[in-house]
Design goal:
single chain, 194 residues, alpha+beta, 4-stranded antiparallel sheet, two-stranded parallel ribbon, 5 helices
């Protein structure tokens, strides 16, 4: 074998080793690589914070809307109509803007005591939230109607899709709230055409 060829290979190896050892101390580009690795995580954190803020806002708006619709209905005299209830639902849509009315469901239930039982007197809804809230049991209704008064239960549900849901796959979150109140103008509240 040629001695010059062997020396050439050795010098090439030494040059490569020096170059590789030199890279160990070279810090150029490290910040770029770290930024490229952290940037997607930071974006997801930002979107997550925005989603949490929006979710809290939707929850608050649902609470205000539920309270408003029940309050409007209980202020009526002894009888309310479907048309009036539909107008109250339109008020809920205004409160929940910018969310579409297609994403908002509203249910109203009026319960009246009858002897030892509490019966559904009338109900009105746009869409379905799944019926009465689970915490509104017969025992609770009996307590609320103990003075032989009606009780009006309103429930508002809003379908909320977080921004992260668009990135990771659309998964809507149902935000709902329920409020129960007694009629203000008397003990009962009838619906003429429900």
């Amino acid at each position: 074998m040629n001695i010059n060829a062997i020396r050439g290979k050795r010098s090439l190896r030494r040059a490569l080793m020096r170059r590789m050892l030199g890279l160990q101390h070279n810090k150029e580009g490290v910040v770029s690589i770290e930024a490229a690795l952290l940037f997607p995580v930071m974006i997801l954190l930002l979107l997550g914070m925005i989603d949490i803020t929006m979710l809290l806002s939707v929850q608050r708006k649902a609470t205000v809307a539920t309270s408003a619709i029940v309050d409007l209905a209980t202020q009526q005299t002894a009888t309310v109509s479907k048309n009036q209830l539909d107008q109250f639902i339109a008020a809920v849509d205004t409160i929940l803007q910018p969310y579409s009315s297609q994403d908002v469901k509203v249910e109203l239930f009026n319960y009246r005591p009858s002897g030892r039982n509490v019966n559904l007197n009338w109900q009105h809804a746009r869409g379905s939230c799944g019926g009465m809230p689970s915490n509104m049991t017969t025992a609770e209704l009996k307590k609320l109607t103990a003075e032989e008064n009606d009780i009006l239960v309103g429930r508002v549900c809003v379908s909320f899709t977080p921004i992260v849901g668009y990135v990771l796959g659309k998964t809507a979150i149902s935000v709902d709230d329920a409020v129960a109140q007694r009629p203000r103008q008397g003990k009962t509240l009838n619906c003429s055409d429900c």
